[in-house]
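Recap from last week: sequence in, structure out.
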Amino acid sequence: MKLIDAVGHRHSAVEMRQAPPRIVSLVPSITELLCDLGLAHWLVGRTGFCVHPAAAVAGIAKVGGTKDVNVGKIRALAATHLIVNIDENQKPTVEALAQFVPHVIVTHPLAPSDNVTLYRLLGGIFGASGQAELLCSAYEREYEALLALPARPSKTVLYCIWKDPWMTVSPDTYIAAMLGLIGWRHWRADSGSGVDDSARYPQFAWNADLVDAIDDVLLSSEPYRFTETHASALEQQTGKPVHLVDGEMLSWYGSRAIQGLRYLQELARIYR
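Predicted structure tokens:
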């Protein structure tokens, strides 16, 4: 298998007879995936947002956030491998780190099916192909179970990630692709609406045209912590059904995507 990352860089499998790799992950969902691949003992650095699995990451050094990385800390950790994501990490920071970290692995899952490739990429690089295949099988079982659900009407939803200013996701994000698996199309701004539809996470304003274009509103649990109070107020304001949803289940790729597919099955049953 060719070990090629999201920007086309080819990677080699770690040579086990040499010194063990020292991995820094700047992506919360990737940190969790590495642990589930059995590689926690090689992780030497993580962001403060890398919180799963709690017991495994507790002893791993924090190197800042996904956007405000402490370059000096990573240098001091003598990392051999750095794992980043196009959406979550800043390109100038990654370029600075690449000056002294020998191997930079770039990830960018855009569709749920990209998780299978991701499992095999990291499993292949770090000698965990067997565990990667187990994750692939688990993912495929949940995916098939999701597809086996009874047909249901499609709907247009607006997934909110922030308030003041209100922010959503673009229709070509991983989140939107996850929602699409149960027939939930993500709202797309019309031309002339004033919304920058080219942005990955555009700001928007509530108005009659937007409300008329959607069926339901989804308030994510992250990065903004929406509550029932927000949901009730927004239902009164828009007259549309508003649901609180688990942001980790819908936005975290990696091994959590397996649980995410199961969560989608639950949403499809509850909100028909």
